[in-house]
Specification:
CATH class of the largest domain: Alpha Beta
Largest sheet: 7 strands, mixed
Shape: globular
Radius of gyration: 25 Å
CATH superfamily of the largest domain: Response regulator
Bound molecules: beta-D-glucopyranose
Order of helices and strands: HEHEHEHEEHEHEHHHEHEHEHEEEH
Mean pLDDT: 93
Number of domains: 2
Number of strands: 13
CATH architecture of the largest domain: 3-Layer(aba) Sandwich
Distance between the termini: 90 Å
Length: 366
């Protein structure tokens, strides 16, 4: 009799401990509800997103953690696994490489986590639930329209693109090509640095393969150094009739500044127009100083608000609002899209300072 009482109390103690352990497990696993993974700290664009997330999350009841992948898909997978282990319910992720990120989000899906692709689409997987993005086709169109509006007949045109591992690079180029192609076909522009683009000048709508060929020749890989080296190589190879007053399609601000510096240092280039995007502070200064012609302002505050809005809807058991969808090569991903604003010297103050995105004191000579 005594023995069985002992056994029962021992069992109770074991059961109590088991419950305690489970409870502790639970409380530690609910530590972080939303995990955020961004591609790299090496580009101001993503450091800006981190800051905008932090601003938006001040005083929020939801716990979040932001990790950076530093340009590595392996690090990105580690980050996602670490967040899964912390019990996140929603993952907001901007992939370093759209295809390679599939493995990371598939692990998240297996753990019952809802995935929001942020700014860049994760491709060739069904493990993406939502996509928040800017209108990337419109970004490319706006860059090209800027060049077209100021074009001189027979003007040399230099093309540059983003990284082929980023689906956005294709969307930007697709948008730009829609606007540039008729002007290339009618001789307004002559392409200076891509034989593939020149060979396709009669083709209004490019296939992904055709775009890949052009991007393969003129990619910057989103790297300012690579952009600089390519621009130098192109100018060294360019004949005299490909210099003078030129137009340059640069895909974003980081690459635009280094391409602009190279073109500015070539004496045979008398004048140039160069595009950009992101409204990075350094590029806004370039625009004010007349060193970069324009940028496309993508208000990251809106993107962050939309991404967090979706995450909170999911946490509250509601269905997030979407405005359309994007095919990622496997499924149609429901998406919420935000418009972009063209900024040049004429509206830099009203678009960026009056909207409280930046402060006037961030710039000289505004
Ligand atoms: C983003 C751009 C950014 C680029 C390089 C793109 O996916 O949309 O804003 O400049 O990546 O990081």
């Amino acid at each position: 009799m005594k023995r069985s009482v002992k056994a029962i109390s021992l069992m109770l103690v074991v059961m109590f401990l088991a419950v305690m352990v489970a409870a502790c497990g639970n409380s530690s696993s609910s530590k972080v509800s939303v995990g955020i993974v961004l591609p790299t700290k090496d580009e101001p664009r993503w450091v800006q997103d981190e800051q905008r997330f932090k601003d938006a999350l001040k005083g929020s009841k939801y716990t979040t953690e932001i990790l950076f992948s530093q340009g590595s898909s392996a690090k990105e997978k580690e980050n996602v696994d670490a967040l899964i282990a912390k019990g996140i319910k929603v993952l907001i992720i901007c992939p370093q490489d759209g295809d390679a990120a599939a493995a990371a989000v598939e692990s998240a899906k297996k753990a019952g986590i809802q995935v929001i692709s942020y700014d860049r689409l994760i491709t060739k997987t069904d493990a993406v639930n939502y996509y928040v993005t800017f209108d990337s086709i419109a970004v490319g169109k706006a860059q090209a329209q800027y060049l077209v509006d100021k074009a001189k007949p027979g003007q040399p045109l230099y093309l540059y693109a983003g990284a082929a591992s980023d689906n956005n690079a294709f969307l930007f180029f697709e948008g730009a090509w829609q606007v540039l192609q008729p002007k290339i076909a009618n001789g307004t522009f002559k392409i200076a640095n891509s034989s593939e683009a020149a060979a396709l000048k009669g083709t209004a709508k490019l296939t992904r393969e055709q775009m890949s060929k052009i991007i393969g020749q003129v990619t910057t890989n989103w790297d300012a150094n690579e952009a600089k080296n390519k621009a130098q190589t192109h100018l060294t190879a360019a004949a005299a009739d490909m210099k003078g007053d030129v137009a340059i399609l640069a895909p974003n601000d980081g690459t635009a500044r280094s391409i602009a510096d190279v073109f500015a240092s070539d004496k045979a280039v008398t004048k140039f127009l160069v595009t950009g995007q992101d409204a990075e502070k350094a590029s806004i200064q370039y625009v004010i100083d007349g060193k970069q012609s324009m940028t496309v302002f993508k208000d990251v505050r809106t993107l962050v608000k939309d991404a967090m809005g979706m995450a909170v809807a999911i946490l509250d058991g509601k269905t997030p609002e979407t405005t359309g969808s994007y095919n990622n090569g496997k499924i149609d991903v429901k998406a919420k899209q935000t418009n972009v604003i063209v900024v040049d010297k004429a509206n830099v103050k009203s678009a960026l300072v009056d909207s409280a995105y930046y402060q006037a004191s961030d710039f000289k000579g505004l």
